[in-house]
Amino acid sequence: MDFTFVSGNLGLDLAGTVGQRRNERVEMLASPRDLGRWVVAAGLLDTPPAVTGDDLRHAVALREAIYRLATAARRGEPLPGPDRERLNAAAAPPPTGVTLAADGLERTGDLSAALSSAARAAIELLGGPLRDLIRECEAAPCTRLYVDASHRRTRRWCDMRGCGNRAKAAAFRARHQQ
Asked: What letter would DSSP give residue 132?
């Protein structure tokens, strides 16, 4: 399964590793290997880190905390204390290291550094001015959260190439079947 990074924030992209939350959940982090692949696909590390079952459970708990926090922020509700504590704890370790090597950029660290980077991105979003731009994709059954950075703040879908295209095609078909 390929990962998508269309949320406009790395923390929201981690939260987006579950699809269709209100229907038949699509779990993209089903194994430790999947988490290692996500870390590389997200551009956090150059090579997959060692990931244990406990690491996966920790990452999934972080993912769910980010989702609940972002959903609360989107609705204008108070941010749940236990989820804030989990997010802050995940952000505490040093983030992924980056250096400029002779042949380009090198990203180094372990899984905790990668998750710290994702947690820090979520904190920046939830604690900053973009917090009010968190939206949920309107395409059924998608439940991805994203930052609406569009000019008029009228973006409706997490990704125009995926959900937006399917929604527009369905609307076109419905108009032409009548």
From this structure: G
The superfamily CATH assigns to domain 10-177 is Jann2411-like domain (1.10.3300.10)
C-alpha separations of 123 from 39, 65, 91, 148 in Å: 18, 12, 8, 17
Per-residue pLDDT of 53-81, as tens digits, reads: 999 999 999 999 999 999 999 999 999 99
pLDDT tens column, 36-46: 999 999 999 99
Between 167 and 81, whose confidence is greater?
A: 81
C-alpha angle 65-69-71 in degrees, rounded to nearest 5:
115
CB 96 within 8 A of CB 49: no
Q: Domain segments of the chain: what residues?
A: 10-177
The end-to-end CA distance of the chain, in Å, is: 37
User: Can you point out the beta strands (E) in the chain?
Assistant: 18-19, 26-27, 97-101, 104-108, 134-136, 145-147
| Rounded (5°) CA angle 111-124-61 | 45
pTM, 2 dp: 0.90
Beta bridge partners of 12: none
